[in-house]
Specification:
Layout (H helix, E strand, L loop, with lengths): L6 E6 L2 H10 L12 E6 L2 E7 H7 L13 E4 L3 H14 L2 E8 L5 E6 L5 E6 L15
Parallel strand pairs: 1-3, 4-7
Antiparallel strand pairs: 2-3, 5-6, 6-7
């Protein structure tokens, strides 16, 4: 198996509300004839939103309704950009779990939670520079 991830799918309770939230962040889903799953191009991988129950069934798991043990991350180029993205998320309806602050690993990050409680870390890590295309270069 090659070392890469092709798609991340979040199971959501209210698909229309989740799509509206991500659109408010400036994300645009791929236009197609599907109305039960939405796909976004996200820097070399696919990010998808799908009904939580259908995703659980398709994934052969029982949905206990709790946190799934995953945090998504969005790396940016500066501390100021962390704060700007957190504010954009707040304006789109996110709950801010942790405001931007210096970290023990030498960076700066904060957390927002989307409408379904999926946590996103917004981070500036000086040891992981971003390439021109927005992809992370592990230092």
């Amino acid at each position: 198996m090659e070392q890469r991830i092709s798609c991340i799918t979040l199971g959501v309770r209210d698909l229309a509300a989740s799509v509206a939230f991500y659109r408010a962040l400036g994300w645009a889903p791929r236009e197609d004839d599907l109305d039960d799953v939405f796909f976004f191009s996200a820097g070399g991988l696919v990010f998808a939103l799908w009904d939580r129950g259908l995703l659980a069934e398709d994934s052969c798991v029982v949905d206990s309704g709790g946190w799934g043990g995953i945090t998504l991350a969005h790396n940016v180029r500066s501390e100021q950009e962390v704060d700007a993205v957190l504010e954009q998320a707040r304006a789109a309806g996110a709950r801010i779990g942790r405001g931007g602050a210096r970290t023990e690993w030498g960076g700066y990050s904060g957390i927002f939670l989307d409408p379904d409680g999926h946590p996103w870390e917004v981070a500036h890590n000086p040891g992981w520079p971003l390439r021109d295309d927005g992809s992370v270069q592990l230092g």
